Amino acid sequence: MSKIVSIEITHHRLPLDPLFKASWDGRPRKQFDATIVRVRDDEGREGIGSGDLMKGFEGHEGLFVGEDPRHLERHYEVLSHINFHYGRCWPMDLALWDLAGKIVGEPVWRMLGGRADRVRLYASSGVLRDPGAMAAQAESYLEEGFPAMKVRFTSSAGGRDGWREDVRALEAIQTRVGNRLELMVDCNQGWRMPWDTTLAWTFKDALAVAKELERLGVYWMEEPLHRSDRKGMRRLSDATSVRIAGGEMTRELYEFRDIIEERAFDVIQPDVALVGGITGCRRLAWQAREAGVMFTPHSWTNGIGVLANAHLTAGVGDAPWLEYPYDNPEWSEQRRDYPMAAPLRHKNGWLELGEAPGLGIALDEERLKATRRG
Asked: Are 334 and 20 a contacting pair, CB within 8 Å?
């Protein structure tokens, strides 16, 4: 029987030049932080996870050391208790799945059900560009083989002059690429950066935007209201043909249970690196399917988080596509995946997961040594 013998957590920082001006944050980002979790067993194997900062995990190593890493449901329960009392430590769950896959010699997507060994991607942009530049970016995505693109709308962090200018950016994209690229919109209203006290849209604001998006045939409208306004989300879903999406920062699985039961969203977007891990989010994939709700994870962390969400989506779900954070030059695959020996590379808009045991992660140890903090 395999036993966990050690857990190592390291923190890393990559300086960014040029800066990354994220649409949801008015402060240009000068660095990109990553936390790496390594779980080792008594036969020398190592499982790797990443995504959240692992705050609150220190002092709880003894709850895992000596245990069989394959007892994933047991470990999930412990992590859920740590989440309640301290912080989100779900990258540990990712590392345990990676290690379990290496023990049994199988990729995680197959361990989860094996529905597919690859996922279709949508290009998820992050920068607010003027309409002409957005149209050019959309054309580049289309040339690379992506079937869909997510466009960010102006949050209170600023950028464009309100949602009407955002709509003009959408119109410019459609003029350039027609209906060859499916479009989604992230309204950036569900949550705010800690310093941002601006109120979210009201229901009437969101409805006015929804009518414009409906006119333009947008596939989904993400985070159009404050994260707590589930009744408003349901009303909005009933009032428009545009799918209502959200939940990327929802902290508890029981909140998703209620969201699914109430049909508050048409599309739920949990991220395995931020809520529930793979073990918890596979429950949501099953629940969502039974309820006729689309399950397609948020994945804006790094390549390790993208891989973990991709394995779940391929193995359990049947989502039409998965989020692929990608917006050159400010958010390139090289920047996003700097902890890895090689960045993920899509193939004509597909991410192929292959046969490597576990999650298929290979780390760049020299880069991690150079970027290590503390």
From this structure: no
| 349, two tokens | 């808009």
CA 241 to CA 239: how far, in whole Å? Answer: 7
Cβ contacts of 99 within 8 Å, gap of 6 or more: 39, 41, 45, 46, 47, 69, 358
Indicate the DSSP class of residue 61. G
- Tell me the per-residue pLDDT of 89-107, one tens digit each, with 9 for 90 and over: 999 999 999 999 999 999 9
Query: CA–CA separation, 374 vs 371, rounded Å?
Result: 10
pLDDT digits (tens, 9 = 90+) for 298-352: 999 999 999 999 999 999 988 999 999 999 999 999 999 999 999 999 999 999 9
How many CB atoms sit inside 10 A of residue 290's CB? 9
Q: Starting at the edge strand that comes first in sequence, how are the strands of the sheet with 46-50 ordered?
A: 46-50, 29-41, 4-20, 372-373
Rounded CA-CA distance 176/187 in Å is 22
